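Readers of this paper often ask what the protein records in our data store actually look like. This encoding replaces a full spatial description with a residue-level series of whole-number codes. For reference, a complete record is included directly beneath this paragraph.
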Amino acid sequence: AFEEGAISNQELAVLIIEALFERDFENGDHWEIDDGTARDLEDDEGGGGDLEGRAFVVKRQARLDWNDLYSVAAAKGTIIISTEKDEIRIENYSYFVAG
């Protein structure tokens, strides 16, 4: 779908962070899982210029708020899509659970 232009770079970035989150997340009862998000990497974050529309800050998280339990699980990182190099880079990826 991506190669045919059926989805945008931003939509691809969301699919990637959702897949990485699913890989690392141990789902259980009572978790509320948010959809993944992607926003353009800002100039002061190293974006802009030739990375416009090709570099994204991505995030996906889930919350457990049940009885006396509260936890947050989150995955975040930067995804850079380079069609010239046929390359997708994932930088600064992290996954954590707090609570």
Notes: The radius of gyration is 15 Å.
